[in-house]
Prior knowledge:
CATH superfamily of the largest domain: Zn peptidases
Strand content: 15-25%
Number of helices: 12
Shape: elongated
Distance between the termini: 26 Å
Bound molecules: zinc ion
Mean pLDDT: 96
Amino acid sequence: MTYNLNDGATRVIQDLKELALLTSDGGGAQRVAWTAFWQTARDWYKQKAEALGAEVSKDSAGNVWTKVEGESTEAIVIGSHLDSVPNGGWLDGALGVLAGLEALRRYTIDGKKPKKTLYVVDWADEEGARYGYSCLGSSAVSGSLNVDELIGRVDLNGVAFEEALTEFQVRPEKMLHAHQEFLKRNIKGYLELHIEQGPILEKEQKDAACVFGAAGVERHYIDFLGQAAHAGSFPVPMRQDAFLAAAEAALEFREIALKYNAVCTVGQVQVQPDVVTIVPGKCTISLDMRTIDAADLQKMYEEAQAVTEKIASANGVSVGWRKIYSVAPQLFDNQLIRLCEQAVEEETGEATKMYSGPLHDAVEMAKVVPTVMMFTMSEGGLSHTKEEHTPEPKLQVGIRAFLRLVHHVMDCAF
Ligand SMILES: [Zn+2]
């Protein structure tokens, strides 16, 4: 019997709805990692996978691996995450895992072994919603996790990281063992389907796209130091207003973003002393800059620094930068990108390609294995909210394209 892609995509959507019903409330999806609802989602998934005859196991970092053995031990991994932010959407993460489940179904349906071994991995704690560390499980597998940063960290209720994980049989000091466990699996490629979480595909009227890489990030705090003074007695030209300098800088960052076709965001502003009748003596803003081009990212960073110096001196204040986080752009694997473009083209008529602004588990995996991602469009660009949605016909297109990609990768010499 030939496999029907339409039926496959329909089953994925049915599964997504079933999971949403099981693990959402009026506010949206509540599958925060290391909580009971998350475990409910994982138990539900495990039952479905085992019903297909797949073998389910957990690694030292709490990632759930589902395996269907192939003729060859060479393996392909499909991954994403069942965990959500609080009040999250029905597709973020779950789409990728349940599309993987359908791939397992496809290769177990006729009792014949697939050519390659196929794994589906449900990464533990992609969102970092409780302890602020994104891509926790996948960074343990890639080996980049710095677990010392997390020991002693507490959630909003004062529960320590190590305490929460122990409840789920994960020992923080052993999480990095998952890297060795991964290396033993003979994995040749990693594939991830995800919603775009942005407005670009919708604006361009595309349903799906091959994702060829993920943006690099420069994230800093910028402190402007002026002089607090009485709002009534100080003439404007004599002020050292730290907020005005920060505000001018924020406008310049917008120009830098537009110039490089990149994104710059000032998401935080702290004014001191934060009093209605006092000229701000200090203002701290955050800056998050992202683009796929490493050279551009460096230039953006340098230009942003230069412009803050200029603005500071024009306003009679001083300026200092403090790094929060930075990561280089990550390009995915060329051969997998070609197969992914082909799959998107077969389904949509066009080989649409884009890069990801947000980080994903795939970015961690790309450090250790050839990787590619695929996006489906997001209605209104919304995610991390219960309004997150992709209309079903468009979701169908994305899932079908992804299942095609899996098939190409399972079939070809890779
Ligand atoms: Zn996600």
